[in-house]
């Protein structure tokens, strides 16, 4: 199984933004198969059964709740018939609670109504803390606030609690994992670090899709075993081969 991590679409500067045309080609590839795109319920069922889905299974995720996940990604996902999950911060869902200074370059976040539009399209919503701090340095009280208040807000918006949490910045330690595990049956990490824990339900590793990958590099990332370090490496190698030629 590979869990793909996206942030923004539209080809903005920086490593977090994928051009829409690239994203569209990637989604078409996933829709054509041999891949099987998972819902969060599919993943949860597999976790409960004690074995993660096989190599061709893919979970598509978007972090932070950017508006372009709704305006740009959702029409492509609809056209391709693909499920996906969007990890949102409870504090970003209303202008009244959006922090004045977010750690992000833009304040263009989806509000509660837009997140419901995403959910009502059949896609999943995951939690991503209330205001997106790195969780390990927080006091116990602040950690509880960031996770429990967020859980309450999202449950209120969605009418049911999310089944999935994504650690802000992929940062977690034993204390954070314990607190999150009391609220969510599964949690997403990011790539590279924490690989020894890969596969445990509260340390599910993800592959960050790079704006520099062409379709061959994307395919290479999906062709490897589900170690995200290997996947990133395979994608980079595929990119180099293409640039260097035979
Ligand atoms: Zn984030």
UniProtKB/TrEMBL annotation:
Its main location: secreted. It comes from Streptomyces goshikiensis. Pfam families: Polysacc_deac_1 (PF01522). This is Polysaccharide deacetylase family protein. PROSITE patterns: NODB. It comes from the Bacteria. Keywords: Signal. Residues 56-246 form the NodB homology domain. It is found in: Secreted. Residues 225-246 are annotated as: Disordered. PANTHER family: POLY-BETA-1,6-N-ACETYL-D-GLUCOSAMINE N-DEACETYLASE, PTHR34216.
């Amino acid at each position: 199984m590979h869990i793909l991590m996206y942030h923004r679409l539209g080809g903005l500067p920086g490593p977090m933004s994928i051009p829409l045309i690239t994203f569209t080609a990637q989604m078409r590839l996933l829709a054509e198969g041999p891949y099987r795109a998972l819902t969060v319920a599919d993943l949860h069922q597999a976790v409960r059964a004690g074995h993660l889905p096989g190599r061709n299974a893919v979970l598509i995720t978007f972090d932070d709740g950017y508006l372009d996940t709704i305006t740009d990604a959702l029409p492509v996902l609809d056209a391709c018939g693909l499920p996906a999950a969007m990890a949102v911060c409870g504090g970003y869902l209303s202008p009244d609670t959006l922090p004045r200074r977010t750690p992000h370059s833009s304040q263009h976040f989806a509000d509660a109504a837009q997140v419901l539009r995403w959910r009502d399209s059949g896609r999943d919503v995951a939690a991503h803390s209330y205001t997106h701090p790195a969780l390990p340095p927080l006091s116990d009280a602040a950690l509880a606030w960031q996770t429990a208040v967020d859980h309450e807000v999202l449950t209120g918006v969605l009418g049911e609690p999310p089944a999935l949490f994504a650690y802000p910045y992929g940062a977690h330690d034993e204390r954070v994992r314990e607190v999150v595990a009391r609220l969510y049956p599964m949690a997403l990490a990011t790539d590279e670090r924490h690989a020894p824990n890969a596969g445990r339900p509260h340390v599910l590793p993800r592959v960050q899709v790079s704006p520099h990958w062409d379709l061959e590099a994307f395919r290479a990332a999906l062709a490897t075993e589900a170690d995200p370090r290997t996947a990133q490496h395979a994608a980079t190698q595929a990119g180099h081969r293409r640039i260097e030629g035979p």
